[in-house]
Specification:
This protein is α/β, with parallel strands linked by helices. It is built from 17 helices and eleven strands.
Length: 562
């Protein structure tokens, strides 16, 4: 085979190898650092900005004790929220269902729609009153087990601090409707009471809903209404630190999860859903207290709400439906958006690019078809080995860690089936991911003694092409996560096939080709880890192996083995 550099001394390969490791570490570290929430601002921050230091005061007042739907513990919480809204110059009201029943002394065993007490207020805008309004929504009830600092006192606090910050600036043109509802934890009851019974529901142009499943992490915009093209464009213009991807929307539709936005969408309202998901062990637990809520997370949630409210409050919201789009934020700096109508043409382009690069490699004498086929099979072997190794290790560790108290069983999670949770869940999953990557390295480096790593790498990319096709057809919102890394790596490999293997040009092309893979998937993987957690430890290694194996074409430029 021509074009290889098998004769290069080992000493001459050390620097490119070291530089490649440093490059991967630098890009990966940058991608992870730029996912963290922004700095929490103190109480003495300028009045026109959102400050977590000020918002935390509301969390501390609301989340002192559990206050589930229908309990007497909700009365002081309601009184506090009403007082704060009045202090902001609003005239709040209590909305009750037509067949409301009086609150009980304790949490009822059968909380129902009859127990709902929604808190509503409306701030008039400077524009025509006939125009559609912005609805700010969060729920103030908690579960019986925990005081609900994250879920959802943080959302209520974000609304109150946003209303205060808005007073420091010019009035909005659009009306602002505030709905701090009750009964979300009992089945989205408060949102339903508002949407079904309140006359203001027909005035809503866009809903901004806040929720949480944990106590830390960035604020994701994880769900939209259908026809989201215009909404995503406005999000990209408004948010100072955007964290959003159409992949979460595509996957969320497949899950049995709901928030208040589910109700609003059912009643024809357009909207955006914001939440944070780190810290599952705190979710719906006695430890969901103000002291355990990360102020940076509250800052990010509130900044998102304030920025979107200010932006939307200047726009005409009477017709906000557009075609659905594919989108993703990058490093909290920008949002890439394109129509879903591009998905299938991009898929076709990826198929042609893959075939073209493979034919180029064969024509240049750098790979053989048998090596591509071998790489396709070896990837499957590596994936099965990683999943089985991690699954087996977890089955051994879980019992021991449970006995040690490192993990606990939560029967209230997992939609009734229960879940094992731990404060160290991400550390454990990260350790499993390192093991999985190690297995990939061992298998492919060993295979590189027999076959060209460039050929094996093209075989791995065959799996990426298969996933790209599947996502483009069945989950178009997730397709960007596969088609763009695939096209970038193929472009780098095409350049590498035309120059000397392992040379500076081939190495730089391979580096650049790997950047989209690392930036995009190191945003996705942490969210998947937090979302699926330890119960899916084995299957979670599939995306880890997919990402790690996609670096084989890059590795071929520094290992230079037949």
């Amino acid at each position: 085979m021509t074009g290889t550099s098998r004769g290069r001394p080992a000493r001459g390969r050390r620097l490119p190898r070291l530089a490649t490791v440093v490059f991967i570490a630098a890009v990966s570290g940058t991608a992870l650092v730029f996912q963290r929430p922004p700095r929490a601002l103190p109480t003495d921050s300028p009045p026109e900005v959102f400050a977590a230091g000020r918002a935390l005061r509301h969390v501390q007042a609301i989340a002192q004790d559990p206050h589930p739907l229908g309990s007497a513990a909700e009365e002081p919480v309601r009184a506090y929220i009403l007082a704060e809204l009045k202090a902001l110059g609003l005239e709040p009201e209590i909305q009750q269902p037509r067949d409301a029943r009086p609150p009980g002394p304790e949490a009822r065993s059968d909380p129902s729609r009859r127990d709902v007490r929604n808190i509503l207020a409306r701030r008039r805008g400077s524009g025509p009153p006939s125009k559609k309004a912005v609805l700010l929504s969060a729920h103030y009830d908690s579960v019986t087990r925990g005081p609900g600092a994250g879920d959802d006192a943080s959302g209520v606090a974000a609304i109150l601090e946003t209303l205060r910050a808005l007073q420091a600036g010019p009035p909005l043109e659009r009306d602002l409707i505030v709905l701090i509802n009750e009964g979300e934890e009992a089945g989205l009851l408060g949102a339903d009471v508002f949407a079904e019974d309140h006359p203001w529901a027909k005035d809503v142009g866009v809903v901004l809903n806040l929720d949480a499943r944990g106590n830390a992490g960035p604020s994701y915009m994880f769900e939209t209404s259908d026809g989201n093209g215009w909404l995503i464009e406005q999000l990209a213009l408004a948010l100072p630190h955007p964290m959003a991807t159409s992949l979460t929307m595509a996957v969320y539709r497949l899950l049995p999860n709901d928030t208040d936005l589910t109700i609003y969408k059912r009643h024809g309202m357009a909207g955006l859903n914001f939440a944070f998901v780190e810290g599952l062990s705190y979710y719906h637990s006695p430890e969901d207290i103000p002291a355990n809520l990360d102020p940076r997370t509250l800052q990010h949630q509130g900044e998102n709400l304030l920025a979107m409210t200010r932006h939307l409050g200047r726009l005409d919201l009477d017709d906000v439906r557009r075609g659905d789009v594919v989108y993703t934020s990058l490093l909290q700096q920008l949002v890439v958006i394109y129509p879903q109508t591009w998905v299938l043409p991009l898929m076709g382009g990826a198929v042609l690019a893959y075939v073209g690069v493979m034919m180029l490699g064969i024509a240049r004498g750098r790979i053989r078809r048998s090596e591509v086929v071998a790489g396709f099979g070896i990837f499957l072997l590596a994936m099965l080995a990683a999943v089985l190794a991690v699954g087996g290790l977890w089955s051994v560790l879980s019992d021991r860690l449970y006995r040690m108290g490192v993990i606990v069983f939560r029967p209230d999670l997992g939609h009734g089936s229960g879940m094992l949770v731990s404060r160290f869940d991400i550390a454990l999953l990260t350790g499993f991911a390192v093991l999985a990557v190690g297995i990939v390295v061992v298998i492919f480096v060993g295979s590189g003694r027999r076959w060209s790593l460039e050929g094996l790498g093209l075989g791995v990319l065959g799996w990426w092409l298969a996933v790209t096709v599947a996502a483009s057809v069945w989950l178009p919102g997730a397709s960007y996560a596969f088609v763009w890394p695939l096209l970038a790596i193929l472009a780098g490999q095409a350049v590498a096939f035309t120059v000397t293997q392992g040379g500076i040009i081939a190495l730089l092309a391979s580096w650049l080709g790997a950047v989209p893979l690392l930036v995009i998937h190191l945003m996705i993987l942490p969210g998947i880890f937090h979302g699926l957690n330890l119960r899916m430890a084995g299957p979670l290694m599939i995306p880890v192996v997919l990402v790690a194996a996609a670096l084989v074409p890059l590795a071929s430029q520094v290992l230079n083995r037949r």
